[in-house]
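WARN no homologs supplied; continuing
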Amino acid sequence: MNEAYQSYQNPLTGRYASKEMSYNWSPQRKHSTWRRLWLALAESEKELGLPITDRQLEQMRAHLDDIDFEAAAKKEAELRHDVMSHIHVFGALCPDARPIIHLGATSCFVTDNTELIQMRDGLKILLAKLLKVITILADIAEKYKDMPTLGFTHYQPAQLTTLGKRFALYLQDFVMDAERVRAEIAQIPFRGVKGTTGTQASFMELFNGDHEKVRRLDSLVSEKMGFSSSIALSGQTYTRKVDFYVLSVLSGIAQSAYKMAGDIRLLANLKEIEEPFEKSQVGSSAMAYKRNPMRSERVCSLSRYLMSLPVNTAMTHATQWFERTLDDSANRRIVLGEAFLAADVILSLAANICNGIQVWPKVIHAHIMAELPFMATENILMEAVRAGGDRQDLHEAIRSHSMEAGKVVKAEGKPNDLIERLAKDPLFAKVAPMFQEILDPKRFIGRAPQQVEDYLSGTVRPLIAELSKEVSAGADEEIRV
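OK structure emitted
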C-alpha cells in the first residue's frame, strides 16, 4: 500500500488551494520566518549596542531557509517545546550565534509575529485575486449593461432589470471586500518586541533600564519585517481580537461569493446562465445528460465553512485569561491557515466561473415575454386613457383579462395570451397598434444601464487602476472540477 494515502489529508491543500497560499501557511514559510525574526532581533540589538558580532549575524543569514525538520521533530519530542526545538536546530547550524539567538525574547516573539506576517501576506494574495474577480465582473457588467432580464423578488417574477446591473451588484460586493482587505493590510499591527508578559522587562535588563533603546528595538524589528508600527500594548500575545477582525473580512469575501454562486445555480436551473462546462466533464454518474453547476456549488460549500470561522476567533479572544493562556494555540494552528486557504479557493473558483460564464439571451427573452404582458398593463392603461378611454372601465377590463390569461397559463400550461385578449377588446382598439412598442423590454429597465456606467466609471475602473499598481497578478490556475 502507498503510505501517502494512509493518513488524513486536508483537501484545502491537497485538492483546492493555490501553491502560493499553501506555501504562505507551510512549515517552511513559518519556520524560515522564525529565523528571519531571530536575525532581525539580533541585528537590532547589535545596532543598539549589545555585544553581538558580525560573524554571528553572518552565520544566521547563511541558514535562514535550510531547515532540518526531522531534527526539529526529534528535538521537540525530547523538549516538548516547538520553539526551543527550532532554536537548538538553528543554533547547531550557527554555533557562534547560538548564545544570542532569541536573546530576551519569548516564544510569542516568533509565533505571534510570524502569524501576523502570514496574515498580512495572505491578505495581499487575496487582494490580487479580488482584483481579478473585480476586473472580470466589471467587463461582464459593461457587456450586458443594457440587456433586459427578468428581475426576481422572493424568487417570484418582478420588474425587469438588466443582466449587467445584476452582475454589477455582485461586483459591488467584491469591491467592498477589496476595500476592507486593503484597510486591513494597512492597519494590521505587528506584535513587535514585547517580552514575556508584554512589559518588555527582559529587554529593560539587557539595555540597563534605557527606555528609549527598548522603544527603538521594538521599532527597528518591526521595520525590518515590513511593518510601520507595532501594537501599542500586548500581554504575552497580541490581542486575539486582531484574528477576529481579519477573519471577518474573509467571511465577507465568502458572503459575496456565496451570493453570486447561489444566484448562478438558480439561473442555471432556468437555463438563462451557466457556469463553464468542459467538453468531457461528467455531470452525473447516472444521468448522463446533466450539466450540474459544480463549481458554484463548491463555492457555496467552502463559503459556508469560511463564514462559520469568525465565531471561533471571537470565542478564542473572549476566553483568553489575563496575559495569555495556551488554549488558543492548537485552535489557531487550524483556523487561521484554513480560513485563508478557503478564501483563496473561493476567489479562484469565482474568477474561473465568471471568466467562462455562458449567457443564453433567447431563453432570457422568452422568460421576459412570458411575464411582461402583466407588467405592461399599467403602461397600456395610461396610453388607453390618453387616447380617450375611461380609466375605471379600462382597469376592470385589464383585471378581467389578466385573471383569464393567468388561468390559461397555470391550469392549461399554455403561453400567456393577455396581449392577444386586450388587442381583441374594443376598449383598446385605439392603442392596440402600439402594443409592440409598449412591450419593448428596454422600456422597463429604468436607469439600470446608466447606473452600471456610473458605477464602473466612478468607482470600479479607478479602483482597478489603483489595485493594479499595488498587487502582482498571480499565474493562471488550473481549477480541479
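The two ends are 27 Å apart (CA to CA).
OK
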